[in-house]
Model the fold of this input.
Amino acid sequence: MASSPPSPDHADLHFGNDDGDGAVIRGSPEPIGGRAILQARLGDQWLCSLTDARHPTLDEASRNTFKRDLRPWLRYLEAHACAQPTAATVKAFIDEQAGRYRTNTVNNRLEAVMRFYRWCAKRGCYPNIAVGLYRDSARVAILPDIIHQADVARKVLAMLPAKTLIDLRNRVIIGLIGSGLETIAVHRACVGDIDLDNGRCRYAPRGHSQKDAELVLAGEVLDVVRRFLAARSAAGPCPPDAPLVTPINGKPVSLSTLSMRLLVRRIADQIGIGNGRLTSTALRCAATGALVSRIGIDQAAQALACNRSNLRRLARRLTPVHADPARNPSS
Done:
């Protein structure tokens, strides 16, 4: 008779559910770690390693992102009772994910799995079973009607209403993302981060715990921000440490990144552009692509406080995931 799986200890219950709400799977009869306990423990060790001195700029939000994107892989192993996954297991997981989720989501989860097993291989605790998978280098015409135009954000702003304070707030979100900022940077932005005199926005790039970067805002975007702040100041106190964009209910908290992403999709549907495919990532792709075309990849990387590889990876974020036999010696 087959032996029962080892009972997971507290360290194996660190991973929540796929909804990303942080709820720990404790009530399930087979929590993560019951049938894939080695992978769960290694995953927990990898995430703990991201907090050490070798990752001084990796903030809590980035670690939570890796934790969120590794979780579906561990749940997949648990569901298939796979304690010793192989490259074929990773490929099967990606194929299953591609049939259920957006390409960008699949790519993010693949990125977490790739980083995880690279770490495992360096420590010698498990082979790198994701070595043959990568983000496809071919570009995809996400928005064939406007994506290749240098003034995508300006075209979107020209179609948006500017009657209410919420309208003005929405224009700020579109303007900042269309300037190349990530939603997490907009989420963290405070009123005092905007320098209206010099036309600059101070922000924290992904992975940075401090707001140590500045972005020069185009004239149209600066006007959008200036008009919003003027209307907001007229409506009530607007201290420098107040969040720049807040929910409709008026609570003094930053609008969530999920709300921003949904907002961009809803705006695109309302004004009839993008064929339902204008996302915050696509808008940022267009902005960074236009910036690279205008000033070159080196200066664009400096302007956005990121490295060249990040800009190249951004251009590939929405492309399909597949295995390249030429990159996998075992195939």
